[in-house]
Each structure stands twice: as structure tokens, then as C-alpha cells.
Design brief:
about 70% helix; mainly alpha; about 50 residues; about 0% strand; 2 helices; rod-shaped
Length: about 50
């Protein structure tokens, strides 16, 4: 297989696109706990020193 700089660049771009797509899908369906609203409410309550 012949690897040129443009070929390798396109592979990196495709890999980054796939990672972004997976993270977006996980965030959409609340599969990443740090990115959902409940986590945000807990953090705000922790900073305020009281539950919301």
C-alpha cells in the first residue's frame, strides 16, 4: 500500500470524524454521565453548598 501525506491526512480526518460522531451519539442518548443535566445540577448544588 502506498502512503502519501494526503492519504494519511484523510485517515486522521476520518478517525476524528468517527470519534466526534460517536461522542455526539452518546451525548444525545445520555450515555456519558458527565455530559447530562443531572451531573450539571449536582455540580451547581455542590458549588452553592445546597441541593437545587
Amino acid at each position: 500500500m502506498y502512503f502519501t501525506p494526503s492519504y494519511l491526512r484523510s485517515l486522521w480526518l476520518f478517525d476524528l470524524w468517527v470519534v466526534g460522531l460517536v461522542v455526539h451519539g452518546l451525548k444525545t442518548f445520555d450515555r456519558i454521565p458527565i455530559l447530562n443535566g443531572e451531573w450539571e445540577r449536582r455540580q451547581v448544588g455542590r458549588r452553592l453548598g445546597r441541593p437545587l
